[in-house]
Specification:
26% strand, Mago nashi protein, 189 residues, eight-stranded mixed beta sheet, 8 strands, 3 helices, 28% helix
Length: 189
Amino acid sequence: MSANIRVFILMVVISYFVVSCNEAIKSSQHKVLNYDFDFSYNDVFTTCFSIKFTSSDTVYIRQHFATISSDTPRSNTTYFALLQSGDRFKLDSLITYLNFQGLDSSYFESYQDGIDYQFYFNNHSVDKRIRVHSYNAPSELVALKEWIIKKKANLKLYQLDSTINFVSAKDFLSPVVPSPIIKFKRPKV
């Protein structure tokens, strides 16, 4: 067998090995983690929303409250949006880094107003809500909260006429109080 044929066969084998390794790396990087995750946030004066992340690039958002000057998002409106390339991987890495099992269910300080937020996480071995109304929350929770808020602010929202269940909003939002009924009496003439 000539030297050229040996070199050619060696190059084919090496190329096959390199391509196989690259495909294995790509498939492990894009592995979708199986969990349910949503987040509710209220900063009292400017915004109150819930966001649900799906196993795809779609997210659902319920804007409970927005300032009057806000065109989008509007209060009491549901939206969907698509995550950018790489956002899903970043979210998965932030969530994988958190030890939901080891965290408390509540980080609460008694003060008026302020930021209040709640996470819901379920991966079929952990089913937990974590509420934060404190200046002393674990840094991992604060980092995840900041990433979600920043990401939500940059999403292109599309209105959706559907009801989405946000577990993180349970026991989080103030109950809706109906307006009082005012009876009008005609003045006597």
